[in-house]
Fold this sequence. Notes:
This protein is mainly β. The chain has one helix at residues 3-19, and strands at residues 36-42, 47-48, 68-80, 86-87, 100-112, 119-120, 139-142.
Amino acid sequence: MNRFRTAVILAAGLGWAGFAGARLPDDPPACDLATIASLDYCPGCQIPVEKEALNKKGEHVDCETRPVKADFCLKTFHLCAACGARAEGPGKCATCKTNLVPQVAKSKIVYRCKNCAGRSDQPKACDQEGCEGKGKPYAKTCADSGAPPHVRKK
């Protein structure tokens, strides 16, 4: 078997494992949900909205949908205003030596099955046929779990 064919088979196998929900050893750790806040959420745009983005009727100005309260995971990171580089801690940018500005990343709390691709905005038990976790409650996580800055601190 030549190297190209071996590489294609290996890549296809790893790709399928990732698609099936299996975690590879080098995957980033899941979010620890350290800070959770209840914020206004626009179901039409599927984004958190600030009070300034609401009209006099209390609707989101972009889609005229009334926001609802939803739980969000909040993570602080630091951003360089000059070059856009991101860092976990405060200080100076490693690239351009400009002061870093603190930012808050907001990610909606969702519920997922650990065994299949089942996902819900509300807590519930898995109801997917053939899933090993059928009948077990979904795990609480954030929508951006595993993507920086929503990773567990070491």
